[in-house]
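Weekend entry, working from home. Most of the wet-lab plans are on hold until the incubator is repaired, so I used the time to fold the two sequences that have been sitting in the queue since the last round of cloning. Logging both here for the record. First:
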Amino acid sequence: MNRYRVVRYLGYSIEILVLFVLQETPGLIPEIGGARPVMLIPAAVCIAMFEHETPAMVFGLAGGLLADFGAGGLLGFHGLLLAVVCFAVSLMAANLFQTNFFTALLTCAISEACLTLLQWVFFFVVHGYAYPLYALTAHYLPIFCYTFA
């Protein structure tokens, strides 16, 4: 393995761990409306824009599993979805669009919106809770907006 690749992967790993610690430390990042940002998703998607498909999927899986650990929900949900999203983003970044700030911002926003909506669908709509729209507007949309901001 190339020495620069090892250093780059080590840097990505440290970045993901630091963002996880920042995200999960209570009181470090202020809550707005009871929502805290999920910084691991945009970080994994941005890493996927610059890597090949397999490393992008591995870093997406790692970021998703750490997000699952922090959320305390179903273990593997974010890991699986973020691995698939990072694989797709890496494939699209290599073949379809040019990587720049605007495409990174747009890709992170679309990925975060898809993951947030899928989480809402699987955790509230499929289980048949009484007020799923309230959960979407009071919980998931503030998290999406705060993460995107």
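Second, folded right after the first finished:
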Amino acid sequence: MPELPVAQSCRACYGESVARTKKAAAFADESLRRLLRYPRPFVAVDLVVFTISDADLKVLLVRRGEPPFQGYWALPGGFVRSGPASDDQGEDVDAAAARELAEETGLATGTVYLEQLYTFGRAGRDPRYRVISVAYFALVKPSLAPLVRAGGDASDAAWHSMSETDEGRSLQLAFDHTEILAKALARIRAKVDYSDIAFELVPDTFSIPELRSVHEVIKGQTYDAGNFRRRFLRMTTDGIIAPAPGRRITTSKPAKVFRFMGHPTS
């Protein structure tokens, strides 16, 4: 007889658990129905990929192989993938950017600097449907630039000079990619003054003149050689850069070379 109250209690607990589960499922179904009342835009990523070649800032563009804007130059990119099951939300936006970079250029993110730039969501930016795009900029070392190849739905990929194309405006890019390119250019021009991104565009070992040239190409202005050298040597004192073996042959005399070490941790 003493087992009866326990059994009854267990049945009551089980009944309450089933009721809670059904209530939670009903709430989830109702929440989903409410969400489905709203328009569901597509989410994409676009990549502004820069390198420096022949003392010129260049951007990677792909020629679209499919409509809309078939045959137009465009930024590499694509849609963020959803999961195959209803309870699988798919890939993260950062993961989508890394995947598109590899698929459309052949470059792995481990060899390329990649940073989120801005979100573009103006209605009508894509003639097919509502698309919100998260843009990224990437910096490719000059030694890796020749390895780029077209992939995905692109029929061609090529580096385009920013100086020879009016910073991309003369190319009539697909979608709103001219606007995205302008935003990325403004970002790296501002960021080069207070961050380490210039080191992403020089060889692994570099001279002071080479680093100064990267700053000048990005900013579109000339730096005083003496002032830049003093700024550079302060980074040596701080341990951000360190001397490297060998010298770089220049038009005047062999130049010392250095290596970027990163910021020391405190």
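Plan for Monday: verify the second prediction. The chain has three domains: 1-38, 42-191, 197-260.
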